[in-house]
Structure formats: structure tokens, C-alpha cells
# Entry
Amino acid sequence: MAMAVTASLALAGCSAGSEPELKVSGAFMPQPVGDMAAGFLTVVNNGGAGDKLTAVTSDISDDVTIHETTDQKMRQVPAFDVPADGSLDLERGGSHIMFMALKQKPKQGQKVSVELHFEKSDPITVELPVKEPTYNPKHH
Ligand code: CU
# Structure
């Protein structure tokens, strides 16, 4: 009897892996110099199914889009893949969140709240600490 219960629990644990399991880390916004800003973060997916980042919203701008960078030119994309057992990396020089027509200009030391919207997972609210304009965690 006890063994049968253990076996069915193990099976349940297995099938839970077919959902995306998202976690956000390393978020930041370089202090904006004009009336637009960029945001960077990593979405880690520990689940067995992929997801997509489809939209970003924020109080500081009504015009928030997601961009990829190719040959130093940025281009708006409809969604970013967050692969199963993988991650989506938004980093300087690459893909990023773009905030246009800022309603307020965040200063270094402040935080900007954004909401990430996904195809499958529930929205995730993230606080982006505002860093100096040249901040790049890869260049420590
Ligand atoms: Cu951009």
C-alpha cells in the first residue's frame, strides 16, 4: 500500500515538468539620458515547456515594446522565446525592453516597476533598479 502511494507521487512530479516555470533575475534599467529608456533582465525557465514573452507594461510609459538587435540596429519583435530548461537573456548590445515617450524620468537609485506578460504563464511583476547610464553587469 505505502509503495503504491509513493509511485503515484513520483508520476505526478514527473508530469508537472510539462509547464513553464519562470523566474526573473538580474533586472536593471540604465538611467535614461533622453525621453526613452531600455530595460534588461533574464527570464529563467526551469520547466519542461517553453513559453513566450509577449508584452511588457509599465507606469512610466504607455509605449513599451520588445526589441532585438542585429548588426547594431534594433527591431521590434512580437515575442521572445523562453525555451524549456533554458533562459531568455535581455542584455546590453542585444535584446531589450524599450520604453518610449517616458512620462517620468527615473533617476539612479530609484526603481521602475514593470509587468511581463507571457503566452502561457501568469504575468510577473519585476522591479528594475535604475543604475548609472553606462552600467553593464558583464563588465565588472
Ligand atoms: Cu530598442
About this structure: Helices lie at 2-15. Residues 67, 74, 96, 98 surround copper (II) ion (CB under 6 Å).
